[in-house]
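Entry 14. Ran structure prediction on the chain below.
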Amino acid sequence: MTGQVFDAHCHIIDPRFPLVANDGYLPPTFTVDDYLAQAAPLGVSSGAVVSGSFQVFDQGYLLDALARLGPGFVGVTQLPASVTDDELQHLDRHGVRALRFNLKRGGSEQLDKLEPFAKRVHELLGWHAELYVDSRDLHALEARLLRLPEVSIDHLGLSREGLPTVLRLAERGVRVKACGFGRVDFPVGPALQALYAANPHALMFGTDLPSTRAPRPFRADDLTMIEDELGEDGAQMVLWGNARDFYRL
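Output, structure tokens:
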């Protein structure tokens, strides 16, 4: 594998900052140093740190991680809809670029706030929305998502049953994270090919490190699979260019 890699989906878990058990689960520590030890050998030089359900609305860990990782990294955070414009602008100045709705595990704002909140942060700062959602639930949300200015879906949508909806959304400009390959219930290679054919700008690679609660954690060959399935030009878009454009870097 050659060239630079943008990791569009990673987590930092630093116990110096608040952690809240999610369904009784607290993740093991995974610091910036732990992340870099695994990511740097893969060619990762840029990426997006994503808030997990167990971090709820804490911003301290994220701002600390972004400061340590440097200007090539951005943040994807969870916030209550009551957040002020001043607070949003403060986060933007420190590298936060997206708002996450964790519909699968919770810890984020509720679904009924999705459309107005996502539109608000986009109008104010150009942030997009990111959804952790089982694609089996996407059909009911499809029209709502297409009304959003910019949105992405985590982990290829997770479920075979919802993959046709993910493909339709990709055709209409929704981004899809090529990460969490050990979380999905379908063959990854054909799904990558179908999504790339639907929209070559849709897919964005992520390590999903440290793969909390994944049935099978990230492996380095998850990254090389992308080049095997999409060829060198497709891999360059998925591993670097698409995410750099989406996160405005």
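The CA atoms of residues 10 and 90 lie 22 Å apart. Will compare against last week's run tomorrow.
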